[in-house]
Amino acid sequence: xxxxxxxxxxxxxxxxxxxxxxxxxxxxxxxxxxxxxxxxxxxxxxxxxxxxxxxxxxxxxxxxxxxxxxxxxxxxxxxxxxxxxxxxxxxxxxxxxxxxxxxxxxxxxxxxx
Length: 113
Prior knowledge:
Order of helices and strands: HHEEEE
Distance between the termini: 79 Å
Structural class: alpha+beta
Number of strands: 4
CATH class: Alpha Beta
CATH topology: Pantoate--beta-alanine Ligase, Chain: A,domain 2
CATH superfamily: GSPII I/J protein-like
Number of helices: 2
Number of domains: 1
Strand content: 25-35%
């Protein structure tokens, strides 16, 4: 009679699955609650907008000019400000503000050409 003791038994796998699900369920509920907060969603929206404006600045025809814009959302407007500085090497900075408070900013350096 040959006995094979390699691997896990079905009972061990079910116990491990029960432990992981007992830990995982509250954790996913917490993460879902965290991402549903207005501050987090404003920040995610600001990052997406700033990256879009930065890409437009780098690849667009009018990208190397200072610009201010306002985007209206259901929960309030976001103000976007693009500043370009420098002669040979341009520094592009995008600021995203809500209610006069900067919630995200991003900068990069570009050789115009």
